[in-house]
Amino acid sequence: MNPVEIGTGKSFKGLAAYILHDVGRAETAARVGWVQSYNLDEAEPDRAWRLMAATAMSADQLKEAAGIKKGKPAKNVAYHFSITFNPQEQVNEDVQRAAVAGALKALGLDRHQALAVSHTDTDHQHVHVMVNLIDPENGLSAASKQPDGSQALMSNTKRKLSKWAQAFEREHGLTVTEGRLANANKRAAGEKVDARRKPRNVYEREKQETTDRRRDFVKRQHDDKARDLTAESRAMHEQHRIEWDALKAAYGSEKNAMQGQTGKIIRQSVADTKAAYKPAWGKLFARHRDELRIFEAGERSPIGRIWHAAAVFRERALDGDMLGGFVAAFSKDERRAIVQKKHDREREKLGKQIRTEITQRIHQIRRDQAEAQRQARARFLLSCENLRGDQEQARAAMRERWQAYNAERRAALVTAQQRQAHIARGRGMARQRGRGLEP
């Protein structure tokens, strides 16, 4: 038995279409054996993946209900692994179902929503399992650190599956997989184990090629070339990742600088505006002092007091209080208040003028900054488009090199096979000619 971790993705719909139907035929499901859902109230398969998708999209609400900080939303939430049984053994359905339940528990995903689908299109029995990494109770991703501070459930998954499979094989009397046993012994001895799965194209190619010793030399030569190409491909992808990281970091820095600069520009503009109006305030205050001095001088003469009283009466009369204005006209404080009120109006008018100008300047600064950010965004998107095009050209060139390599490999192996067949025919003919010559 061999549990294989296939990977994680974003689409429950796409994964369900693959495991619930025949390859390349969404309308048929001849290869599907049994199907079972977990923590989905025994929902039908087509409804099961929809419920899983709905749970994943409700992760923030589930976190909020559980009192967990939302944080950054998880992207890859559809986890896919398979359990393959030894082709020499016919494992009944109950054992297969038990294997799925045991694997989910070993991974710590037994509370999560899952859908298991057995396939019957190969000579070995196998089951595909799709798991929703979003916990239906608290909305937390199994790939994230747990609320109690413990590590993510998705850490060391291959080792967990390997350990579980070894115990399961012994418990159910299944053939122990030698490769996994060897890897377990290596781990116990502290050795590093490379348990990466072969790419499908490599597996299919090796399955088609024979292990005849006459072709081994050709294969080894091309394996060396394949390793070189693989190293170049990885270096290219790593370079592409670095280029994208650098481009995003540069744009982020530019955007942050703009946002930080906005506040500085606004504060400077306010200070400049106030400084520009400082002489006007000085003149206004000087004039007010002169007017108060003239008022005090006028109060010392009867005619001056009469003029001031008339001003008080007129001010009150405009407000409809003629009697109050007559009484107030005989009060020095009331007469002085008329001058103060005039000064207050003038100061308020100048202050309003300054505030209006500051507001207009701030709005213009924000408009300018928004336009600058829009232009920066446009430049970033254009750079993304150019980088995407350059990288696609590099990937296309690498694909052409791989295609040329595969064609060259196939041709070399065909030539070796034809040479082998020619030698075999020659030997056969020699044996035929030698018949009847024996003593």
Overview of the molecule:
By secondary structure, the chain is α+β, with helices and mostly antiparallel strands. It has twelve helices and five strands. It has a five-stranded antiparallel beta sheet with strand order 1-3-5-4-2, sandwiched between helices. A hairpin with a 6-residue loop joins strand 4 and strand 5. The longest helix is centred in the C-terminal third of the chain and has 103 residues, at 332-434. The protein starts with a strand and ends in a 5-residue tail after the last helix.
Write a concise synopsis of the structure shown:
With 439 residues, the chain is an alpha+beta fold. The chain has 12 helices and 5 strands.
Main pleated sheet: 5 strands, antiparallel
Spatial sequence of strands, sheet with the most strands: 1-3-5-4-2
SS content category:
alpha+beta
Number of E strands: 5
Characteristics of this structure?
8% strand; 439 residues; five-stranded antiparallel sheet; alpha+beta
How is the topology of this model organized?
Blueprint: E1 2-9, H1 12-19, E2 32-38, H2 45-57, H3 59-66, E3 78-84, H4 93-107, E4 114-119, E5 126-132, H5 157-171, H6 178-188, H7 200-208, H8 213-276, H9 278-299, H10 302-318, H11 322-328, H12 332-434
Antiparallel strand pairs: 1-3, 2-4, 3-5, 4-5
